[in-house]
Specification:
Elements (H helix, E strand, L loop, with lengths): L5 E6 L2 H13 L7 E5 L7 H18 L5 E6 L7 H14 L11 E4 L5 H10 L20 H12 L9 H22 L1
Parallel strand pairs: 1-2, 1-3, 3-4
Helix pairs in contact: 1-5
Length: 189
């Protein structure tokens, strides 16, 4: 990958940040290529933070149009569907006077159903019920997820088909394929 590729990641919490850090490192990114905007713990609504930061970063991305810059945002769907949470993000952009992300832009939304802990439970045991949110939490031991995320990144790299994959993770895999295509084309420019 070209050294100048820069990716801004906007996320709700430290677990999102660790998940994306481990995944992106495994996929070839280096620390100097990543900039994180993580909601401050215990200070206001983390989803609101992600919406606001998405708008700011989207404007910056469009102002400095370069193929080598991209934007990833991670926000839990909670009790909404992935499509409903995506719609909420688009509405937040429109309300802030920013056009929502377009399909041809290097903007990638990662939206776990309920919370990312559901994906981690799936990676640990091989199946999960996305209609509940009672899976193990990793507060204070976020680094424990590293082997799970590494295994997922390796499977993605090998285009390995996952079985019994939760629908929101399957949707995120589609986002990942689009991201990989962007990464290839931006590295060659």
């Amino acid at each position: 990958m070209a050294r100048n590729v820069r990716l801004v990641i906007v996320c709700e919490d430290i677990l999102h940040r660790v998940f994306l850090t481990k995944f992106l490192y495994q996929r070839g990114f280096t620390p100097h290529q990543l900039t994180f905007r993580t909601a401050p713990a215990g200070v206001g609504d983390a989803k609101r933070y992600v919406c606001d930061a998405l708008c700011v970063e989207l404007k910056a991305l469009r102002k400095f149009r370069r193929n080598a810059h991209g934007l990833v945002y991670v926000v839990d769907a909670d009790n909404l569907s992935v499509a409903e949470r995506l719609h909420c993000m688009e509405l937040a952009c429109s309300s802030a006077g920013v056009d929502p992300p377009k399909s041809d832009e290097p903007v990638f939304g990662v939206i776990p159903k309920w919370e990312i802990e559901n994906w981690l439970a799936y990676l640990r045991v091989g199946e999960v019920d996305e209609s509940v949110n009672n899976y193990d939490k990793y507060r204070g031991c976020e680094s424990d997820i590293a082997p799970l995320v590494k295994a997922l990144a390796d499977k993605c790299a090998q285009h390995e088909q996952l079985s019994k994959v939760p629908p929101s993770l399957e949707e995120a895999c589609g986002v990942c394929r689009r991201f990989e295509e962007w990464k290839r084309t931006s590295a060659s420019s």
